[in-house]
Design goal:
56% of the residues lie in helices and 16% in strands. It is of the alpha+beta class. It binds zinc ion (ZN).
Length: 310
Protein backbone atom coordinates (compact mmCIF):
# COMPACT_ATOMS: atom_id res chain seq x y z
CA UNK A 1 0.00 0.00 0.00
CA UNK A 2 2.81 2.40 0.89
CA UNK A 3 4.59 1.54 -2.33
CA UNK A 4 1.50 2.14 -4.44
CA UNK A 5 0.83 5.47 -2.78
CA UNK A 6 4.47 6.54 -3.05
CA UNK A 7 4.20 6.12 -6.84
CA UNK A 8 2.10 9.27 -6.84
CA UNK A 9 -0.51 7.74 -9.13
CA UNK A 10 -3.11 7.25 -6.42
CA UNK A 11 -5.28 9.53 -4.34
CA UNK A 12 -6.40 8.28 -0.91
CA UNK A 13 -9.75 7.55 -2.55
CA UNK A 14 -8.43 5.49 -5.48
CA UNK A 15 -5.89 3.75 -3.24
CA UNK A 16 -8.68 2.67 -0.87
CA UNK A 17 -10.64 1.23 -3.79
CA UNK A 18 -7.50 -0.57 -4.99
CA UNK A 19 -6.77 -2.04 -1.54
CA UNK A 20 -10.37 -3.25 -1.20
CA UNK A 21 -10.08 -4.89 -4.62
CA UNK A 22 -6.88 -6.61 -3.41
CA UNK A 23 -8.88 -8.02 -0.51
CA UNK A 24 -7.62 -5.85 2.35
CA UNK A 25 -10.10 -5.67 5.22
CA UNK A 26 -9.95 -4.11 8.69
CA UNK A 27 -8.98 -5.98 11.86
CA UNK A 28 -12.67 -6.59 12.60
CA UNK A 29 -13.38 -7.81 9.08
CA UNK A 30 -15.12 -4.58 8.05
CA UNK A 31 -14.80 -2.65 4.82
CA UNK A 32 -11.69 -0.52 4.59
CA UNK A 33 -12.38 3.21 5.01
CA UNK A 34 -10.48 6.11 3.45
CA UNK A 35 -9.87 7.55 6.91
CA UNK A 36 -8.08 4.36 7.95
CA UNK A 37 -5.89 4.37 4.84
CA UNK A 38 -5.05 8.02 5.52
CA UNK A 39 -4.15 7.30 9.15
CA UNK A 40 -2.00 4.28 8.29
CA UNK A 41 -0.06 6.24 5.62
CA UNK A 42 0.55 9.07 8.08
CA UNK A 43 1.60 6.92 11.03
CA UNK A 44 5.33 6.66 11.86
CA UNK A 45 4.44 3.32 13.50
CA UNK A 46 4.75 1.54 10.17
CA UNK A 47 8.39 2.40 9.63
CA UNK A 48 9.15 1.19 13.11
CA UNK A 49 8.61 4.21 15.35
CA UNK A 50 6.34 4.82 18.30
CA UNK A 51 4.77 8.10 19.23
CA UNK A 52 5.30 8.44 22.96
CA UNK A 53 4.20 11.54 24.85
CA UNK A 54 4.20 13.58 21.67
CA UNK A 55 7.74 12.47 20.76
CA UNK A 56 8.69 9.96 18.10
CA UNK A 57 10.76 7.15 19.61
CA UNK A 58 12.19 3.96 18.12
CA UNK A 59 9.72 1.07 18.52
CA UNK A 60 10.47 -2.58 19.23
CA UNK A 61 8.24 -3.92 16.45
CA UNK A 62 9.21 -5.02 12.95
CA UNK A 63 8.82 -2.12 10.48
CA UNK A 64 6.36 -2.71 7.65
CA UNK A 65 7.85 -0.15 5.32
CA UNK A 66 11.27 1.44 4.93
CA UNK A 67 11.71 5.02 6.02
CA UNK A 68 12.38 6.40 2.50
CA UNK A 69 9.15 4.98 1.14
CA UNK A 70 7.25 6.30 4.13
CA UNK A 71 8.78 9.72 3.67
CA UNK A 72 7.88 9.70 -0.01
CA UNK A 73 4.27 8.93 0.97
CA UNK A 74 4.21 11.98 3.24
CA UNK A 75 5.46 14.17 0.43
CA UNK A 76 2.92 12.79 -2.03
CA UNK A 77 0.19 13.44 0.53
CA UNK A 78 1.39 16.98 1.16
CA UNK A 79 1.41 17.65 -2.57
CA UNK A 80 -2.14 16.36 -2.91
CA UNK A 81 -3.34 18.32 0.10
CA UNK A 82 -1.78 21.46 -1.21
CA UNK A 83 -3.52 21.12 -4.54
CA UNK A 84 -6.81 20.31 -2.88
CA UNK A 85 -6.80 23.22 -0.46
CA UNK A 86 -5.50 25.99 -2.70
CA UNK A 87 -8.97 27.45 -3.12
CA UNK A 88 -9.75 27.18 0.56
CA UNK A 89 -6.53 28.91 1.46
CA UNK A 90 -7.54 31.77 -0.73
CA UNK A 91 -10.90 32.03 0.97
CA UNK A 92 -9.64 31.75 4.50
CA UNK A 93 -6.11 32.99 4.45
CA UNK A 94 -5.82 33.22 8.22
CA UNK A 95 -7.13 29.75 9.06
CA UNK A 96 -4.81 28.25 11.65
CA UNK A 97 -3.37 31.60 12.69
CA UNK A 98 -6.27 33.14 14.61
CA UNK A 99 -6.96 32.25 18.23
CA UNK A 100 -9.45 33.45 20.82
CA UNK A 101 -8.05 35.76 23.48
CA UNK A 102 -10.81 34.70 25.92
CA UNK A 103 -10.63 30.90 25.71
CA UNK A 104 -7.44 30.33 23.63
CA UNK A 105 -9.50 28.26 21.19
CA UNK A 106 -9.07 28.31 17.43
CA UNK A 107 -10.91 30.62 15.08
CA UNK A 108 -12.46 29.16 11.95
CA UNK A 109 -13.30 30.74 8.61
CA UNK A 110 -16.88 30.50 7.42
CA UNK A 111 -19.00 31.98 4.69
CA UNK A 112 -22.68 31.88 3.82
CA UNK A 113 -25.18 33.60 1.58
CA UNK A 114 -28.02 35.53 3.18
CA UNK A 115 -30.56 37.25 0.94
CA UNK A 116 -28.12 37.25 -1.93
CA UNK A 117 -25.30 38.81 0.08
CA UNK A 118 -22.13 36.91 0.91
CA UNK A 119 -21.12 37.01 4.57
CA UNK A 120 -17.60 35.93 5.43
CA UNK A 121 -16.18 35.77 8.92
CA UNK A 122 -13.90 34.01 11.34
CA UNK A 123 -15.22 32.91 14.71
CA UNK A 124 -14.05 31.09 17.83
CA UNK A 125 -14.98 27.41 17.58
CA UNK A 126 -15.64 27.30 21.32
CA UNK A 127 -17.20 30.65 22.27
CA UNK A 128 -18.98 31.07 18.90
CA UNK A 129 -21.54 33.75 19.86
CA UNK A 130 -20.06 37.23 19.99
CA UNK A 131 -16.80 36.24 18.32
CA UNK A 132 -17.88 36.56 14.65
CA UNK A 133 -15.32 38.85 13.04
CA UNK A 134 -15.29 40.18 9.51
CA UNK A 135 -12.72 38.47 7.28
CA UNK A 136 -11.58 41.54 5.38
CA UNK A 137 -11.20 43.54 8.58
CA UNK A 138 -9.01 40.87 10.22
CA UNK A 139 -6.91 40.43 7.09
CA UNK A 140 -6.38 44.17 6.98
CA UNK A 141 -5.21 44.12 10.59
CA UNK A 142 -2.77 41.30 9.86
CA UNK A 143 -1.29 43.40 7.09
CA UNK A 144 -0.75 46.17 9.63
CA UNK A 145 1.11 43.72 11.85
CA UNK A 146 3.53 43.08 9.01
CA UNK A 147 4.12 46.82 9.00
CA UNK A 148 5.24 46.58 12.62
CA UNK A 149 8.12 44.31 11.76
CA UNK A 150 11.37 46.23 11.53
CA UNK A 151 14.16 44.32 9.96
CA UNK A 152 17.84 44.63 10.68
CA UNK A 153 20.62 43.41 8.40
CA UNK A 154 21.27 40.40 10.62
CA UNK A 155 17.67 39.31 10.49
CA UNK A 156 17.54 39.87 6.76
CA UNK A 157 20.40 37.38 6.49
CA UNK A 158 18.57 34.79 8.58
CA UNK A 159 15.57 35.36 6.39
CA UNK A 160 17.61 34.74 3.27
CA UNK A 161 18.58 31.31 4.49
CA UNK A 162 14.97 30.57 5.45
CA UNK A 163 13.86 31.72 2.01
CA UNK A 164 16.33 29.27 0.52
CA UNK A 165 14.62 26.47 2.46
CA UNK A 166 11.26 27.55 1.07
CA UNK A 167 12.64 27.50 -2.45
CA UNK A 168 13.96 23.98 -1.80
CA UNK A 169 10.61 22.76 -0.58
CA UNK A 170 8.80 24.39 -3.51
CA UNK A 171 11.21 22.60 -5.79
CA UNK A 172 10.55 19.29 -4.00
CA UNK A 173 6.78 19.68 -4.24
CA UNK A 174 6.98 20.60 -7.90
CA UNK A 175 9.18 17.59 -8.63
CA UNK A 176 6.64 15.28 -6.97
CA UNK A 177 3.81 16.80 -8.97
CA UNK A 178 5.79 16.57 -12.20
CA UNK A 179 6.78 12.96 -11.54
CA UNK A 180 3.15 11.97 -11.00
CA UNK A 181 2.17 13.66 -14.27
CA UNK A 182 5.05 12.08 -16.18
CA UNK A 183 3.97 8.65 -14.88
CA UNK A 184 0.43 9.30 -16.08
CA UNK A 185 1.74 10.39 -19.46
CA UNK A 186 3.78 7.20 -19.84
CA UNK A 187 0.71 5.11 -18.98
CA UNK A 188 -1.34 6.85 -21.69
CA UNK A 189 1.43 6.47 -24.27
CA UNK A 190 1.34 2.73 -23.60
CA UNK A 191 -2.45 2.66 -24.02
CA UNK A 192 -2.18 4.47 -27.33
CA UNK A 193 0.36 1.94 -28.55
CA UNK A 194 -1.92 -0.91 -27.42
CA UNK A 195 -4.82 0.63 -29.32
CA UNK A 196 -2.65 0.82 -32.44
CA UNK A 197 -1.72 -2.85 -32.01
CA UNK A 198 -5.39 -3.72 -31.57
CA UNK A 199 -6.24 -1.94 -34.78
CA UNK A 200 -3.45 -3.69 -36.65
CA UNK A 201 -4.38 -7.20 -35.48
CA UNK A 202 -8.08 -6.58 -36.04
CA UNK A 203 -9.24 -6.57 -32.39
CA UNK A 204 -10.43 -2.97 -32.84
CA UNK A 205 -12.62 -1.74 -35.66
CA UNK A 206 -11.54 1.56 -37.12
CA UNK A 207 -14.28 3.64 -35.40
CA UNK A 208 -13.55 1.89 -32.09
CA UNK A 209 -9.90 2.80 -32.45
CA UNK A 210 -10.71 6.42 -33.28
CA UNK A 211 -12.96 6.76 -30.22
CA UNK A 212 -10.31 5.35 -27.90
CA UNK A 213 -7.57 7.50 -29.41
CA UNK A 214 -9.69 10.66 -29.16
CA UNK A 215 -10.26 10.01 -25.45
CA UNK A 216 -6.62 9.22 -24.74
CA UNK A 217 -5.43 12.28 -26.63
CA UNK A 218 -7.78 14.49 -24.62
CA UNK A 219 -6.32 12.99 -21.42
CA UNK A 220 -2.84 13.55 -22.75
CA UNK A 221 -3.57 17.20 -23.45
CA UNK A 222 -4.78 17.68 -19.87
CA UNK A 223 -1.55 16.21 -18.57
CA UNK A 224 0.58 18.41 -20.84
CA UNK A 225 -1.30 21.43 -19.48
CA UNK A 226 -0.62 20.21 -15.95
CA UNK A 227 3.09 19.85 -16.70
CA UNK A 228 3.28 23.37 -18.12
CA UNK A 229 1.49 24.67 -15.06
CA UNK A 230 3.84 23.04 -12.50
CA UNK A 231 6.75 24.82 -14.16
CA UNK A 232 4.87 28.11 -14.06
CA UNK A 233 3.77 27.67 -10.43
CA UNK A 234 7.29 26.93 -9.40
CA UNK A 235 8.90 29.89 -11.12
CA UNK A 236 6.21 32.16 -9.74
CA UNK A 237 6.85 30.98 -6.19
CA UNK A 238 10.56 31.28 -6.74
CA UNK A 239 10.43 34.86 -7.95
CA UNK A 240 8.27 35.79 -5.00
CA UNK A 241 10.71 34.38 -2.51
CA UNK A 242 13.50 36.26 -4.25
CA UNK A 243 11.44 39.40 -3.96
CA UNK A 244 10.91 38.78 -0.27
CA UNK A 245 14.64 38.71 0.26
CA UNK A 246 15.26 41.79 -1.87
CA UNK A 247 12.48 43.70 -0.25
CA UNK A 248 13.18 42.54 3.26
CA UNK A 249 13.01 46.10 4.48
CA UNK A 250 9.51 46.49 3.17
CA UNK A 251 7.84 43.31 4.27
CA UNK A 252 4.41 44.92 4.54
CA UNK A 253 4.25 45.79 0.84
CA UNK A 254 5.74 42.45 -0.15
CA UNK A 255 3.08 40.66 1.86
CA UNK A 256 0.37 42.87 0.39
CA UNK A 257 1.40 42.11 -3.21
CA UNK A 258 1.85 38.37 -2.72
CA UNK A 259 -0.40 35.60 -4.00
CA UNK A 260 -2.43 33.80 -1.31
CA UNK A 261 -0.09 30.79 -1.21
CA UNK A 262 2.92 33.02 -0.64
CA UNK A 263 1.01 35.07 1.92
CA UNK A 264 0.66 31.86 3.92
CA UNK A 265 4.43 31.33 3.68
CA UNK A 266 5.08 34.86 4.92
CA UNK A 267 2.61 34.42 7.76
CA UNK A 268 4.43 31.22 8.70
CA UNK A 269 7.78 32.99 8.61
CA UNK A 270 6.80 35.75 10.97
CA UNK A 271 3.86 34.72 13.10
CA UNK A 272 2.62 31.68 14.94
CA UNK A 273 -0.64 33.12 16.31
CA UNK A 274 -2.80 36.18 16.36
CA UNK A 275 -5.01 36.57 19.43
CA UNK A 276 -8.43 38.00 18.64
CA UNK A 277 -10.87 39.80 20.93
CA UNK A 278 -13.96 41.77 19.90
CA UNK A 279 -13.05 41.57 16.23
CA UNK A 280 -9.56 42.96 16.80
CA UNK A 281 -6.15 41.35 16.88
CA UNK A 282 -4.88 42.26 20.34
CA UNK A 283 -1.57 40.39 20.29
CA UNK A 284 0.65 38.69 17.75
CA UNK A 285 2.92 35.80 18.71
CA UNK A 286 6.15 35.52 16.76
CA UNK A 287 6.91 32.41 14.75
CA UNK A 288 9.36 29.71 15.80
CA UNK A 289 11.88 31.14 13.33
CA UNK A 290 12.12 34.51 14.96
CA UNK A 291 11.39 33.45 18.54
CA UNK A 292 15.03 32.48 19.24
CA UNK A 293 16.18 35.88 18.06
CA UNK A 294 13.93 37.51 20.62
CA UNK A 295 14.61 34.99 23.40
CA UNK A 296 18.40 35.23 23.41
CA UNK A 297 18.30 38.95 23.87
CA UNK A 298 19.74 39.84 20.47
CA UNK A 299 16.37 41.27 19.55
CA UNK A 300 17.25 41.54 15.91
CA UNK A 301 13.60 41.82 15.13
CA UNK A 302 12.23 44.91 16.75
CA UNK A 303 8.56 45.45 16.74
CA UNK A 304 7.02 48.63 17.96
CA UNK A 305 4.58 47.13 20.41
CA UNK A 306 2.24 44.30 21.27
CA UNK A 307 4.56 41.30 20.94
CA UNK A 308 4.63 38.66 23.57
CA UNK A 309 8.23 37.73 24.34
CA UNK A 310 9.31 34.22 23.39
ZN1 LIG B 1 -13.19 31.56 22.52
Amino acid sequence: MFQLYASGSFSIETLTVKMISLGLITKNGGTLQESVVHRVLRSPFYYGKMVWRGKIEPGIHEPLVDYDTWLLCQRVMNTHNQNGSRKRKHNFLLNGFLYCEDCQGRFYGEQHLKRGKLYRHYHCGTCKKGTYSDIDELEKQVKKWFGKVEMTEQYANELRSKAKDIVESLRGTTNDERQALVNQKTAIDIKIRNAEDNLLDGTFKKDQYQRVIARLEADLEGIEDGLAKTTKDYSKGLSQVERLVDMAENIKQTYHDAEPEMKREYLDLFFSKFMVKDGKIVTALPSEYIKPLIANGKLTVRVRNGWLPG
